[in-house]
Amino acid sequence: MRIGVNTRLLLEGKLEGIGYFEEQLLQRITKEHKDDEFVFFFDRRYSKKFVFSSNVKPVVIALPTRLPILWKIYFDYLLPIYCKIYKIDVFFSPENYIPKIKSIPIISTVHDLNFIHNPNYIGNKSHRKYFVKYFPKFIKRSDEIITVSNFSKNDIISLSKELKVDKEELSNKIDVVYNAANTIYQPQTTETNNQTKQRYSEGKDYFYFVGAIHKRKNLTNLFNAFDVFKDKTQADVKLIIIGNKKWWHGEIEDSYNQMRHKYDVVFTGRLDAKQVCLIASASIGLVFVSLFEGFGIPIVEAFQTKTPVITSNTTSMPEVADKAAIIVDPYDVNQISDAMISLYSNKELRENLINQAIERNKYFSWEKSSNKLWTIINNTAKKKKK
Length: 386
Fold this sequence. Notes:
Blueprint: E1 2-6, H1 17-32, E2 37-42, E3 56-60, H2 68-85, E4 90-92, E5 106-110, H3 114-117, H4 125-141, E6 144-147, H5 150-157, H6 160-163, H7 167-172, E7 174-176, H8 190-201, E8 205-210, H9 219-233, E9 237-242, H10 251-257, E10 265-269, H11 273-282, E11 285-288, H12 297-304, E12 309-312, H13 317-321, E13 326-328, H14 333-345, H15 347-361, H16 366-381
Parallel strand pairs: 1-2, 1-4, 2-3, 4-5, 5-6, 6-7, 8-9, 8-11, 9-10, 11-12, 12-13
Helix pairs in contact: 1-16, 8-11, 9-10, 9-14
């Protein structure tokens, strides 16, 4: 079998959530199924590190897809031609975008519908317009759809009327393939934790957040909750924010500038997984009170480092965390601050959450997810289109 794969998001040094999801699954599947051939379609020069096995053939379609007009040319015209040239039997895309081709079974991936529920979170109007216009077409064109949580699956199904797709038919072609933590995330020694504190927080205890500095990550309420935490406890504790300030200016920056304890907030910028692991391991806990997630990878990364978690009661986060985290209303600053106080002051609570996190994390693994994806690919390939 020859599997075509959209690998345009495998960018060395720039792997975001979708690229990481793709990397973890493909490196396992390609190595475990040597009798099958994988054709990786890149839109620019690629790193050899992404040619995971000898049965991977990298192909460059030299049209870097940076703009909506280029997306359309690439997926509607160029990629279908290349799929025919390389005689692809089944096509897998780790994102919404898929080739416009009827003769090959197609598997697409929908990570979340944030762009539909909160279109204003997408700053670029042309990108937003493209997502909204073409998403229904991608859904109808897909033979199978992968998503990363039951929340996202139900969210997609709930739009069946708007998408003009039969609800039962849509439900039957959606499968959940969970994310998981990078294996690099592991608890560290006391000595290493102390060194991490010296490096990032002047030796002080701290909470941390990791993710895009974006409105939907709810940093405004996190900043306000940290202020309340500091006022009520008078604790010499810091808050570490890990992530690029790409969407910093405006509401988030204003809320930070108005903080009473802003000098106890540490911004690290974007860090590699090893550094995030070190910060997680040495922390009081992760405060991840996002407004909308399709999954919430920082939660399972914290679980794997045996780090307590505070997270939101919205979208996918309760599903991922289950009973292994403190669940709060992300719109309620007092709930968030009370959870931070409890986590800081109650050692028994922290230990209980860690024990539950260890058990919960067993539910998520890249091995399980790659095996499930391979089953989906095999079954979809049998649906040879006429």
